[in-house]
Amino acid sequence: MNDDLIWQTKLAARLHDPAEKALVLLRDPEGHEGGTSRALHRDLGFHNLPVKEWLDPDNAQVLDTVLFKHGIPIAMYKTVKRADWWAAGADRPQWPVDTVPTKSGETTTSRVVNWARVRWTEVPVLIHPLTGTPFDLGHLADTDIGDIKARSFEHFSRLIVKEGEHVDWKRTLLAFWRFGPELREGKDSGQLGHLWPLLPAETRVPDHSIWDHLDLTSAFAGGFASDPQGEVALLALSIGPVQSFIAAARSTSDLWAGSHLLSRLSWEAMKVVCERLGPDAILFPRLRGIPQVDVWLRDEMKLPAQWFAGCNWTERTTDANPLFAAALPNRFVAVVPASQSREIAQAVEARVRTWLQDLGKNIVDRLLEAAGLADGTDKHCHRQMREQLQGFPEVHWAAVPFSLIRARDESKQTDLDVTQLSEAMAPFFGVAPGQACGFLETPAWEVLQKEAKFADGTTFFSPKPGVLYPAVYDLAERVLAAAKSVRSFEQVEQKGWRDSLTGESEWLTDDPVLLNVPPGKRKSRRDEGFREGDHVETLWTHLADEKPAWAKKGEHLGALSAIKRLWPSLFAEEVARATGQPVGQVPRFVVSTHTMALAYQLDQWLDAGAPMGGELRDRLADTDSVPLPRKLARKYGQRDVLEFAKRLPGLLDAVREGENERALRKVEGLIKEAFALADGGQKEVRLETYYALLLMDGDHMGRILSGDARYAITYQESFHPEVQQRFKEQAQHHDTIKAYGEQKRALSPNRHLAISGALNDFALHVVPEVIESEHLGRVLYAGGDDVLAMLPVVDVCSAMRRLRCGYSGHDPEQAALDWRAVRRETRMVVKEGYAFLRGQLMRMMGEKATASCGAVIAHHQAPLAMVLRELRAAEQRAKKEGGRDAFSITVIKRSGGVLSLTAKWGEPLDVLVALRNFLAEPAVSRRAVYNSLLWLQDLPPDASAGMLGSLLAYQFGRQTSRIEVWHKHEGPLLSNRIAALACKEKARLDWLARFMGVAEFLAREARVNVKDAEPATAKLSR
């Protein structure tokens, strides 16, 4: 089949149900399949397609008058119908039907029984697919059918792309996929515009959108049409390694570059599938709305640029641009033609490695040019780059064909034979061939494989192959895991001195003789102490002079480290081109740890007007500016004093690098005086030198993706509330039907699309909002359920809590808000499994999904590699010691001491913040915790909560000079809450000591936001 016919089939699949189906079902005299869909078929010219291309091979003599059905050729119609059956079988519960005679009375047809029908516009409810929580949209019955259909038709008509007089089928398919869910014109900005992306595919089971169903139908149809036998397979593919590649970092810029480059490699892998089969062929992750995908659609697929004008990636000209977000995971799952699965996987591997080799050559050319060593020839460093990149990244894949499932009734795709599927699964479950295993031995399959009847004689639809998606997916994942365990290694000989970051490969050089020169002998002529004959210059010593952002003094990097180091600069050029800015005008992605440590004090200083003495002003005038946290830039962007804030951390760093202790003390004194002026000039100010790194990861994501019953809702919970009630009435006398309703829903593509959509919105919208708008932090990585961010110490507790709430879509502090009042909220609202932000309603992971978080507070001069090791250890403690759904905070003191605290979310974090706020009061002795810890040593290890609470209250009361402060923070209540938490731990006194120690560290000056330092009595009372 030629390419046009593939894209035509996919378009027909996208039009088999109109987008407005839920709004017109049971209301439109033309039926939901008439109206808009039929009109668009005509507009696209399906009726003018060459009929001979679509002759049914089983009925080649059929008359021209019946070669079309619903406006498309019969063979295409059959392909789309089969795809629709498979998609519906995979995504929806079965439904009872009865038979009715046709008008002629000669035959009968099936229809859904009356009790299972829903007039959705009268009771518009959405069901959260991951929690079963209903979301009531109000009343939509007064929506005019004619107006809805006209607006839908007009919307899609504008998305038809033509070359001259002819439809460009591929580009039109891409346009329908990308912009179909968006009604962005002026008149569509009302209720329908907000509701449009959420319209359900099935009014009786409103837990997935019409767009999910159309995507899946198009994926199946494209796969069927592209395969000579009409067969499809599920392709699971991953690239790596992940952790080791990201972890090799000396700066926050390296850290960001590793994660972002891996995300970009993932997109290069996915692009192979998108080019051949369309982005809807990829079921996980969901690609719609990902900025990097939009750039491809606009620049390579040539969709009209004006369609992307409202996207924020086209407007932001700084590294706040969402293109800088590493939004894609290192794996994907796609529906592909079965006969092409191997060739597609091999093409993916070739594409990512070729892309990286091309990037590597560009990197070496840039390095040589910057060092003044370029002469147009192929140098030793070019060969090193090629050799060190061989076999990277690793690409693992597995494909499982759906042909393992056979429909004995081909005409209806029912009566399923799973013999071959069972035999393929057996080795991975350690059972004998033919023995049920995996999904095939679950209660869900026991119910779904049988045709059950109600007492009134009505029956469920018979299961179609799509219902076995869970088994095919599980088998693909197991085969992929097996493929990863068989790794081939190509030994690359490395003779000379190694890379400064990884210690694994030779550093790049234009002269291989230099690889034998030890580090102490490599210097630039500009370096102090350089002696001719004793020292030699290298590519990297030149770069340290000419391009210090690419190489620090003494650094010598290998291939992968060099690519990561230069990637921020190269990608900034890409963003400049994407946004139409002059190359070089988009800043690199980097905020120093020192700047982050000072962020809160800079905010307080700027808020007071940035007062300073003349000497400091003069020093800042001669200093280069550095990037600031985004919230500061946004908050003070219109004030001239912001430029002083940009230069202040740079001044400190420049003086410190000069290694003149006296000059450093002088500059620190000037800055302390300036900060003291902002604080009224009544006390001496200490400069904050600590910052925080935060790492959050979703819990049990593998189980959630695999459809584990602990994270699934029942079939009955996915029903519309009206149908739930009627179903219970019908099923109360039928055990099989009742069991079906109570059975946990099987894994489905809809579940994967829902999870992927939630993770995309979390990473692209919620995480930046929490870290960079609500707090003074910086997102280093946000991809799916993984978040890595840098924050000032003052914000770390609040940001951790808010991220956790945003991930599940539930913040107890916002639970009482009425949805009708939400639009008036200026900050993001998260409740009932959703997040509402600036007019956009986004479905999150739901309350059943939990996340664990590690945080490290360290001195800004602490080696980043060491801090990252502690950060990963903290996250693992949260998952293991905390039992998941927990947090762990580690404090690395400059003096060498280490404190750590692990606890569950909720009350422990609230009480920690309350204790911090109390200890931060000037009336509370700085020795309050120290003195309290002394008497802990004399207590019995099994001290009761009552004893601990009363002793804590006594000690804290003694350490408070003003009784009103003690009462303001409800000292006795706070002490009892701390004691109660400690008594839940095995080593209660040790945990209590760590809890108070962390709180005391957080309570020191410049680590408590005065606006947040009010007593948390409301939280404690809850």
TrEMBL record:
<dbReference type="GO" id="GO:0051607">
    <property type="term" value="P:defense response to virus"/>
</dbReference>
<dbReference type="InterPro" id="IPR024615">
    <property type="entry name" value="CRISPR-assoc_Cmr2_N"/>
</dbReference>
<feature type="domain" description="Cas10/Cmr2 second palm">
    <location>
        <begin position="690"/>
        <end position="887"/>
    </location>
</feature>
<keyword id="KW-0547">Nucleotide-binding</keyword>
<dbReference type="InterPro" id="IPR013407">
    <property type="entry name" value="CRISPR-assoc_prot_Cmr2"/>
</dbReference>
<dbReference type="InterPro" id="IPR054767">
    <property type="entry name" value="Cas10-Cmr2_palm2"/>
</dbReference>
<dbReference type="Pfam" id="PF22335">
    <property type="entry name" value="Cas10-Cmr2_palm2"/>
</dbReference>
<keyword id="KW-0051">Antiviral defense</keyword>
<dbReference type="InterPro" id="IPR038242">
    <property type="entry name" value="Cmr2_N"/>
</dbReference>
<feature type="domain" description="CRISPR-associated protein Cmr2 N-terminal">
    <location>
        <begin position="234"/>
        <end position="359"/>
    </location>
</feature>
<dbReference type="GO" id="GO:0000166">
    <property type="term" value="F:nucleotide binding"/>
</dbReference>
<protein>
    <submittedName>
        <fullName>CRISPR-associated protein Cas10/Cmr2, subtype III-B</fullName>
    </submittedName>
</protein>
<dbReference type="Pfam" id="PF12469">
    <property type="entry name" value="Cmr2_N"/>
</dbReference>
<dbReference type="InterPro" id="IPR043128">
    <property type="entry name" value="Rev_trsase/Diguanyl_cyclase"/>
</dbReference>
